[in-house]
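Hi F.,

I've been meaning to write this up properly since the lab meeting, where we talked about keeping a consistent format for the predictions we share between groups. The idea is simple: the sequence comes first, exactly as it goes in, then the structure tokens exactly as they come out, then a line or two of notes. No screenshots and no reformatting. I'm using this chain as the first example so we have something concrete to point to.
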Amino acid sequence: QVQLVESGGGLVQAGGSLRLSCAASGSIFSINAMGWYRQAPGKQRELVAGITSGGNTNYADSVKGRFTISRGNAKNTVYLQMNSVKPEDTAVYYCNAAVAATGATIRTIYWGQGTQVTVSS
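Output, unedited:
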């Protein structure tokens, strides 16, 4: 079974920084793309940032210029550098990946369990 595990969440003051990590493990042949989503209380889950295997990135307008998504040197790892955080960034952040399992042709979407980010004013 493929598993995605997030880490790095916590409490941070407005204007501060936080770095989230996500590592995928299991029977993986390749990962086409990885991304970060977030869900605040009472709101729907939304895309924060995504990155393809080719290095193309996409950001939500609300985080452009403040957040940076990148791939790590370790295989199947993605990071989200969060700078100049705001109280409205408070949410559970989820890692997402499109994974091709070993021996498979199609890709399957997997989600991590989420990590809480709380920004105090």
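Notes:
DSSP finds no helices and eleven strands in the chain.
The chain has a mean pLDDT of 94.

If this format works for you, I'll send the rest the same way.

G.
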